[in-house]
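Aim 2 progress. For AsnC family transcriptional regulator, the working sequence is reproduced below.
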Amino acid sequence: MNLDAIDQRILYCLQENSQLTNQELAERVALSPSACLRRVRSLEESGVIRGYRAVLDAEKLGFDLEAIVHVSLDQMRPNWHEQFIAGIAPHDEITQASIVTGTSNYILTVRTRNMTSFSQFIEQKLVKIPGVRDLCSNIVMRKIKDRSGMLPLTGRGDG
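Predicted structure tokens for this construct:
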């Protein structure tokens, strides 16, 4: 889908605050409310906008520990990739999972209440997934930038 500058401004504004009213959004992107609504609906129907959600504060909800876990699998096992994907699916502690290049096969972001619950998750759940060969965990001490789920639109961030 080709996005013009107005579409990009709409997306940027909605990334920053998806609860803007159509009137507020229209004012920010210099469109009439009806034209703005048509564009937003078009972006939704095309799948560019996949949905809207609340961004929760994990620490205020008691999930104080975040870790980045590098996982290497035994690739000699049949269906190793499919088994791992199925194995991590039921675990809500895993908030992100990516297939990566390099020394690991996957990188997981894991969120738990504390170190004890993180250790239990690793020992009782993650290492029991068939084919898991090696884990390396990094505990996040402090986030200095978090734009997860956001894209660099309208030329911002192009350096």
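The chain has a mean pLDDT of 92. This observation will guide construct design in the next reporting period.
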